[in-house]
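Reviewer comment 2.1 asked that we show a complete input and output for one of the modelled complexes. We chose the zinc ion case, as it is the one discussed in the main text.
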Amino acid sequence: MAHLIPVLVQTPAHSQIGGALTYQSEASLPPGSLVRVPLGRRETLGVVWDGAPERDPALDASRLRPVSAALDGLPPLAPNWRQLVAFAARYYQRAPGEVALAALPPQLRDLSQAQLQRRLRRPPVSRTATASAPDGGASDTKSAADAQALALSPEQQAVMEQLRQGNGTFLLFGATGSGKTEVYLQCVQELLQREPSAQALVMVPEINLTPQLQQRFLARFAPVFGADAVVSLHSGMTNPQRLRSWLAAHLGTARIVLGTRMAVFASMPTLRLIVVDEEHDPSYKQQEGARYSARDLAIYRGQLEHAKVILGSATPSLESWHHSRPRAEGGRYTRLHMPSRVGDQSRLPLVRRVDMNHQPRRAVIAPPLLEAIRQRVAAGEQSLVFLNRRGYAPVLQCGSCDWKSACPHCSAYRVFHKIDRSLRCHHCGFAEPVPRACPQCGNLDIAPVGRGTERLQEHLAELLADLRRPGSQTPDAPLGSPVLVARIDADSTRRAGSLQSQLAQVHSGEVDVLVGTQMVAKGHDFRRITLVAAINADNALFSSDFRAPERLFSLLMQAAGRAGRDAAISGHSEMWIQTFQPRHPLFEALKRHDYPAFAERQLLDRAGAGLPPFSFQALLRAEARTQEAAQAFLDAASTAAQRQLADLPGFDQITLYPAVPMAVQRVANVERTQMLVESPSRKALQTFLTAWHGLLHTVRQGEAGRGLLRWAVDVDPLAI
Ligand SMILES: [Zn+2]
Ligand SMILES: [Zn+2]
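Response of the prediction step:
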């Protein structure tokens, strides 16, 4: 007799197919088995799911379609993995099939049985081939140093001891340069040596950070556990690479998986330790499809697997900080503290605030800051000038009429890029050459307004034009060579490999001053930079986004952390901040490198305003050709909730706010509107969202869904 088998397949977003589909099979297939099944006219990859198959009594079982094939040779996906997927789908309001199939390597879908068997038989990667540094010789010395466990500072030792003794989730609050990575490495090492089959997952926020981390882990562990023991998993890999890493993790040959947020779904049957480095980073939140937080799922997964979870940061998210308060006050994580930088003489950079109220009105770089940069150049040291806005100028404006370089498709201005003389929209990508004259009145005098990284680079090069690089005099250039001001941002690093080559230029000392966006503040080690300056730090102080101060503080702390990581010169490294609000508590706390004081004040504010982590939020977003259509859908969704869900347990704890257009209301001719749902109870919010989801489908099909292009629910949104 044929078995009835529930199978999850990839279904279109918001299709009415919520759970598993039922197929029949001659063989009994355990949950977690990967199968190929017919779906419509095509054949697709599916995962045999848990629970009894849905049986519609009216349906003749003999008419159910059979499973086409099982992927032989692959062990089933583990119960914990399936539970993780089911939880993520439920919590983030998506179909389990969408979450499950997105978590599998794309190539698995197209592999024939014969191809799969070949890959399963393929011998592991040769050790000699990969045990050497993967990125060539540039960091050989560092790799050699990484091959041995480093001697730990007393702070690191104390933290290690707490990690050995404890269980559950830990927040490792450690200053930049305090040696968090060494703690991760030694925790992983102890685990892998103690338990011969245990696996560890280490996550970082950015793809760019994975090569250097992989190199450190390989150097340390390849000699002990073999080169196959360490694999990466991130979206920058090719499909064959991803499949290879995924198989190694799933089969247990990989002991360590390094990756970005997608790695939280890696199939690791013997997972015992999860590290989430820079846990505060917004990149851990997926911004499309299932909008999951990989950090939050890591904590959930840790509980499921009884694995330790280490969240690391110098500026933790306020959520994690709050959850790591003392147990007696309700805290759930264990807070571990490493305040000091590792190494002699090393101390945190001095923070200097420049009161822009007392500087020449048009000064972009205040005179005292310029003088400080000139001194660094003269001493052969490097400076990093940080401005979070790329392009030459954010707007081009006509001097005689009111024309501005608005994007015709978005409610935003197009940015002037001088390098290719283009006007580019950073929201929809629409680009045109800069017009010769004002398109509205013909005036030739159209001028850039404001400043981006390109213009800042040009400006700094002019301000430093009279300087020569120390020691650069040669018979050919008796006066020496000019100062080099380089720039690293999303524009300068568009080509593959260009970020690496530009970073190498900075490391080799060819660059005197580096201009960059937040891209350079993250994770990269600039050992020779002794001065970091934030040119325009005030924007975030008055943002309508309640998370803006948290992000600014963490960005500035990270930027400061770039300065002087070489112990020999960190004695005089400095962080300069240009501000019109020098007495602002955020800058006061920054000056003292006092994250706890900053966090305490922010949490008080948030508690007073009933904001996360003291409440829980979700957004319903709608996109349509007209603002009216988007609004109509949200209004109808709200009305339906009030009318039909009023009896739901906990509904009295739900606040539905009115629909409002998003900050950039129109992008690529699509109008965007959102509605906030808030509750002091996570459970009440979850109950509500689940019940509401069904209603939303109905509203979508009805009159109020006309003209609607897309809708989505974002649970625990990061930007409101
Ligand atoms: Zn004009
Ligand atoms: Zn646009």
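Residues 126-143 have pLDDT under 50 and may be disordered. We note this here for comparison with the apo prediction described in Section 3.2.
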